[in-house]
Description:
2 copies of one chain form a homodimer. By secondary structure, the first copy, chain A, is α/β, with parallel strands linked by helices. Chain A contains 17 helices and 15 strands. Chains A and B meet through helix 5, strand 4, helix 10, helix 14 and strand 14 of A and helix 5, strand 4, helix 10, helix 14 and strand 14 of B.
Amino acid sequence: MPKPVQVKRLNSQDIGFIETLLSSLSLPMADDEAIDAAVVKILTAVKAKGDAAVLEFTKQFDRLNVAKVSELEITRPELERAYNELSAVQKNALDVAAQRVRAYHEKQKIEAGCHSWEYEEADGTRLGQKVTPLDRVGIYVPGGKAAYPSSVLMNAIPAKVAGVAEVIMVVPTPDGSRNPLVLAAAYLAGVDRVFTIGGAQAVAALAYGTETIPSVDKIVGPGNAYVAAAKRRVFGTVGIDMIAGPSEILVLCDGSSNPDWVAMDLFSQAEHDEQAQSILLCPDAKFIEQVQDSINRLLPEMPRAKVIEASLTNRALFIQVQDMKQACEIANAIAAEHLEICTVDPRQWADQIRHAGAIFMGNYTSESLGDYCAGPNHVLPTARTARFSSPLGVYDFIKRSSMIEVSEAGAQTLGAIASTLAHGEGLQAHARAAEMRLKK
Amino acid sequence: MPKPVQVKRLNSQDIGFIETLLSSLSLPMADDEAIDAAVVKILTAVKAKGDAAVLEFTKQFDRLNVAKVSELEITRPELERAYNELSAVQKNALDVAAQRVRAYHEKQKIEAGCHSWEYEEADGTRLGQKVTPLDRVGIYVPGGKAAYPSSVLMNAIPAKVAGVAEVIMVVPTPDGSRNPLVLAAAYLAGVDRVFTIGGAQAVAALAYGTETIPSVDKIVGPGNAYVAAAKRRVFGTVGIDMIAGPSEILVLCDGSSNPDWVAMDLFSQAEHDEQAQSILLCPDAKFIEQVQDSINRLLPEMPRAKVIEASLTNRALFIQVQDMKQACEIANAIAAEHLEICTVDPRQWADQIRHAGAIFMGNYTSESLGDYCAGPNHVLPTARTARFSSPLGVYDFIKRSSMIEVSEAGAQTLGAIASTLAHGEGLQAHARAAEMRLKK
């Protein structure tokens, strides 16, 4: 039985409160030079030797000994079989989740401007932007203890909704153990090809291509420190998504919620890993005490109590604030990955939030509903990056090209302007190119 | 007088053509460990010592010896004076350019989905996404020989159109020499504060903040190898734009254009720097010969002939193709920063282009018009990254938060699904959080 957890308390009126808060948010950067050096070796080997290097590293790290990379591919019929062999309950849950995630991202494709546009000016000049899906995308799916079918849906479905022609998934299967739910999710999400490879060697294969594994244009999906270091290194050769930090939840309460629900929502973040962070902001000292009591009452029931206990002890915070308005200001400073607003009329507070990955409004919106099946993406910016970045979305799988068609009349007016500015910058060929289009 | 340039020729029917082409596109990565080590030192010093370190490095690198960082700030009235002191012709050119860039990006803000949206489901559950501009953005503007007022407009205007509250520009002024056009452009674009600092120390000041310089949420704008290395290092603490490589132009001709115009457009890329790349794709061998002749006839007139000659000799390519359809396929493989389609009916070929930063259609659309005043952004993806990234735009200065409000009824249906999936992933607190919201 776990011993009682005492969550660290802060009060917004403490001297130096904001400094204490911000320093509690940051983790020392895992800037491991040894990991980086190992990754460089793997990337270089795969780039130079292709399939042979992939086979070697897969034998070394995952203890899979095969003669050809093609033996590491799982075919669509095999994925379909994994799906068909699920229980009716699991199949239905996965179906509904996939369908809701797809519906949300289809709305997003329309609303978030993933379409081409153009306008014409009076002199016939036409300007606009053309939207094109990426040709080929790689999805990294972790194997072993953190193999999450929901992540397969969340990464692959937006790519397919965007119109990506080929989605290639890599998933390590140490000692050959495959997760049927992950394969079923890949089938449902429309993943085109699956290779059972992982680590930096999988990132390298996707970035550079090998004889068997085609190179992709962008790599998304979470992974361990080696995968993260490899993604950083191949950035530029291919696109990458954000490098994810430990998961975080911030709960704003006005004291009107069920403290057990709040405690369980904090647990559901804390159970991810010992570095995960759960924070409660509340003006009501009595309610904070109730949540603390709920934690100690509910913790012994939890199968992952040890992880939860470590996470809450190391990283959780209960912050007593002056009022809900101040809670919103502090929430903007924290810029949390997940923000729950468990209050009466949550919209009034949501309106004051500028920085958060996802905002869960009202007592019925537990973060776990969003994690699995509400529809929005569960890949969200961590570590205060919600100040400048967004949930994974359809917009991550398209890109834009500017479209410019200057008419003969337009070239006359624009040419004079461009010539003046180009001479001002000392770029005379730019000026001449514009001047040549002027009528004598 | 420069000696005649002979541009390297390729033919799409050559054996190993695609390999030769792709290897001609790539430059050895400037992965300079010495630069990176120097940058780490500067970043660490500025993070630890703030203003004092900024003053020290600015004295060391730019020979500016001042007592306080506030002396390095250029106030809005000083910017306005620089603008007012321009010649009428320059003032008008800058006005028109700023106005056209603003108009284009205002259309983009609407069309590219930079707005919040939401929808409601039958059971009252509401889902959507909230769009918020970034709070504060830093713009790096190079000083010295490559000080471009047009780049100030192209970086600052989309940020302001997005609604960024505070745009902070940094620009080194070695030995105190200020470029009045750059300051005037900052005034016109609505830049809020300007500091005359540069290099890795400016990136560090913007990323971490100092006593005088506020920290920003994202840093954009081009710079030298030190600036690029610093941006890579602070990525995650702040957002960054793409790391730009040498500029490139790809011209598709069917043989119907004026060869002098094409030659000058190739020059206007080549004059940027010796690593810039200019490529011509054309099915007509005679036209290629005419462009080669134009080059040698026009080159002696160019003030920047030495740079152009070096760039064309080192990196230019004339590629003879089978037909325009094949030219488009090759253009997709190249994924150029700038693509000119100088043909009859350029739209039919533009439709076949999937990968390019900007597409310039028709003989009157010289790239230089787009560089300065057509309206679209001139910050474009280089080095084949147009396969997965976009021109700088309003969308780079906003970010999204998912909005989720599950109704009590919605929590019943979604809760059952989430519970099944969470148990499948071994995350029991996630399951319990959903189950607690189910009615008994």
